[in-house]
Amino acid sequence: MNTADSRLSVARPLLVFDGDCAFCTTSARTGQRWLGLEHVEPWQFLDLESVRLTTEQCEEAVQWVDVDGRVRSAHDAVIAALRHAGGVWGLLGRLLVLPGLYQLASVVYRWVARNRRRLPGGTPACRLPQS
Asked: How far apart are CA 57 and CA 43, in angstroms?
């Protein structure tokens, strides 16, 4: 597959989450409703190569794939989803890229990711793979 084909593989932005994790599934579906996201999918049901993602990326963090093929991960994916939603959510997304808030978003995302099995709805399946 050539790069041009993979870059055109999403007609609208795509949020990719870990469908084996109950906490992630609940979070992604809540985000889909609140942000009005059209395309939210568990990575386990996608042809990852067609959207330029790897299993490792998807096991590590939530992913955002823009229509231009650009991939954002972890807190950057959340920020991209917020900005895409527009309105108050878009404003929050723009604020989260400011110095200090951006670093805080990173720390909070990593804490949630590390502890997702302990959060409401989390199960042992939500545990991140050990690297």
From this structure: 10
